[in-house]
């Protein structure tokens, strides 16, 4: 395949980059190669949001609905520090420096509102917040809505500020919609992206000028078959999705990831669609899109989705990557397991299906063969008599890795439990179901006695560890209490409203 | 004091002067400065906590294409000027400069600095520096066995506290523990150094450009004028950037050897040991009272973690001893030396840990007495400083409590623990605590220039670390000169400006502000003298770019200044605190640490506040959420309510963060900090912050300094951890005597 430069829209034109290593981050390129230093580095691992930028792509190429629509573009806020530059090929990159140019005033309404509301103190987090707010602005501008305070807080969950205490920034987010509007003219961007798409053909094949051997090649096909064939031939390459795990391996653990096979440009892998009584989530669908689809099936998953990282990570990372990576504290697996999800795995032209609850073999080990990849996640549509909850317990409420998370579901016939799934993360070497506790509930009446028996049975299911996130004793107690809470919230008589435990509502009151 | 109110100057919530540059992304922070032909540096850090380097091999690192230099203890061999630790009168973050020997004193110590043409090459080479260590047993935690306490000061004694305690009717005796913490400003530490004709230009985020200049001049043995320190924007500091960090010296040295600019950005993880931190502390507090609630003895013994390389204590008993009226007071500080990097100042370094224990103990005493915690504090309000006997320059703590209690709805509180439960079973707790912070002052210079068009420039080598100094110092000048705020420009953060104080200890507004005030007054005097020699200047005023003469007639500034040679009036002022002698002042202006207060010759000056918190605790999961915080403060004159409020609010959120989240965990087996990234060093994200109410009382202090301001930047954090712990007790009946308070602590 012919080598091509990385071509993307930046600074009002198409730029072509041929000299960067395949794991060069967008942040390093911005700050180093082109000296666009408005975008800041605060952690280099997706935690602080100081590096937030917007990546836009053509909507008809994007394949999923998780982004923000403007014209025929889909825009996503992402963390530039863990995004590899070659993945920008065929897309547009917008940074803090672009905003003022979108208006004929000195400042974009987002920026003006930040000034008016004192949303910037030391200012180091500011470009990141402005870009996250810009995403909020575009989304609501397109939908002709205005967000409430809770929605704003959710949108800013991936940005940390050490100075302001956040209140002034939330105020700015409310104010920006009251200022004279600015619109993003997407036409020139779309035209440029179409031109790049036309010259790209079947996909980008890139190697940094002067580099060869393993670790030099980056391949981003646009068709599944091409991806499958390439991977089957070169199973030692690393399959790259949103890089929200892999970016950290490179930046923090200095791991040599070899050649990269990027699946993000395969539109077919990013589709989410209903097929009969199954929701099919393409492995490349973003976390943002996949969670939205799951919430469509089960609204009680809303809070779990919001507390899964922050928006820039959810707009970049994929649910397929989360499942494939298989961390014992990954948040998607317990939920999907409680929903009886099945995985479609593909190797070359062959594909097979495995139930998710049989996929994890041991700590960070799964059932994928060499050169095999996850193509889709199949989620059966829930039975109307199913009651489901997902809970996430972490030290910090937002933007924190779980100490423990779970997906809990019971299907009732009358008051008798005909199906039960209790899947836990953070309790063992892999995410897995609590079979003893499930047995205690199966065919029992959904009532206090059975729940108490299941709580006791959890001790047979798990011997959790103590670590920096929580002690064994806490995990044990809270796993039991989560079952109890599940019952309180889903019992037929006087269920506890879910909202009462959703503590984020406190954050919404403004500062006075 | 003469302050022209209503000129768009003092007391007006002017929008930040630097906001525009920041929202556009054009404000240049240290890592953003371009230098031609820059080489990039990367660090290698020690993996062991104590011992020696037994083998060092840099061949592989040097073989990486583009590598220019690998600086290690072997290649450093250069005699440097004898500059010391900032708390021993020098400017360095530590007495120990890495690479000056093969000794390892703490995990994460810099063991080499690799410089290359590109950052990637430097980083790759840094990983290839091969080192073996002769490792020795280390203790990074003050709780390790076998460590001894050493007294850190002679203590404070009033009356006979031990005897009074022994005889008391009601008493509390409890020990409270606070962990090590790291500042973690969002901006990473960074430095870029360039030499030209023997002169050093250094860009770094700094809270003390004058001190950094003086220190680097000494280290490199060059005249002070040959060092230029530039730090126009600082991405948060909180005390972390108030001294010269070791990498700064190494980067400057590498740049000199290479004859080429060198830039280093310190990764987040390395920042935990390249910089300083807030050390762990243990406070034993003993309080005794009569049944009616009058304190009879106040005792506070604090043991703080220090470093083997720098014994340093941050105990806050100067403040806790002054909180309440008691005839008997006894305070002692001690330290335990551990194998860690030198601890340093972190927002309210002494006060924040000490007040967690002290104000928790006050709550315990209130419980023991059955007296409302707010009333207990009001009952024990001292008319004068109970230690020195001097009057306060101002103290409105009781008013803060009364106003705060009203705002918070304290009267709704049922004092019985666990008695307030929401409809869904959520436990609700209310707590309060006192906050205070000393109002110290440092000498400062400033220059003010007024031009014919009414525009005004303020020059001062002070710093805006996010606090709002750019805005506030300009307002002081605008106020005196009667010019609209938009016409004022403020230049700070560069050592070429007139000397400014360290931006630490919440002193910038009072100190640099007083200097600006003085310089602006001098400009005004010249203006008056020019316009009407011989007239009574005390009857002249300045408003709206005009001089108003005693007879009421007006003369435009443009006419007066336009006629002067140069077309400007410019005046320099050197300001010093009332109680300071000239010699100390000169030392301070030359970049030395020179503080006056908070205990002066005639008065004692502190800011005060009353803080309230409401927590909500999930009965099943024990998760703790701070639903509301109220803080009412008395900090003297508020130059800009917008920036002041923001600092106080930010401080309160730091307090909440400290109460529930922040801890630098120590891996005791390996003697190092364990959670050295932002994924596991938690501080508050936006969802952790509930409703926050901040109010500032209108307080007039005619003694503290020329403009009547007291400390604002740090007081907000001080009472919050105890207020939250007290609220947790009220919600659950569980008294947690440590921070952070975790869900596990409530099992
Ligand atoms: C700041 C931050 C916060 C986070 N918070 C959370 C959280 O709250 N909860 C949580 O669960 N996770 C969290 N994560 C991790 C989460 O973002 C990732 O697990 C993510 O879902 C992985 O998807 P990705 O597309 O980024 O995968 P990548 O990083 O690109 O890849 C991850 C792994 O999966 C493999 N892979 C990817 N796609 C496939 C496929 N289709 N077939 C086979 N293998 C594949 C890759 O080869 C690699 O081994 C967080 C991450 C960050 C940086
Ligand atoms: S630099 Fe912190 S998220 Fe990217
Ligand atoms: S303004 Fe300083 S980190 Fe947000």
From TrEMBL, chain B:
Annotated ranges, domain Aldehyde oxidase/xanthine dehydrogenase a/b hammerhead: 24-137
Which spans are transmembrane here? none
Alphabetized SUPFAM superfamilies for the sequence: CO dehydrogenase molybdoprotein N-domain-like, Molybdenum cofactor-binding domain
Gene3D superfamilies recorded: Aldehyde oxidase/xanthine dehydrogenase, a/b hammerhead, Aldehyde oxidase/xanthine dehydrogenase, molybdopterin binding domain
Task: List keywords of the entry alphabetically.
Answer: Molybdenum, Oxidoreductase
Q: Which GO molecular function, any one, fits this protein according to its record?
A: oxidoreductase activity
For the keyword Oxidoreductase, the answer is yes
This chain belongs to the protein called Xanthine dehydrogenase YagR molybdenum-binding subunit
Q: What is the organism of origin for this protein?
A: Acidiphilium rubrum
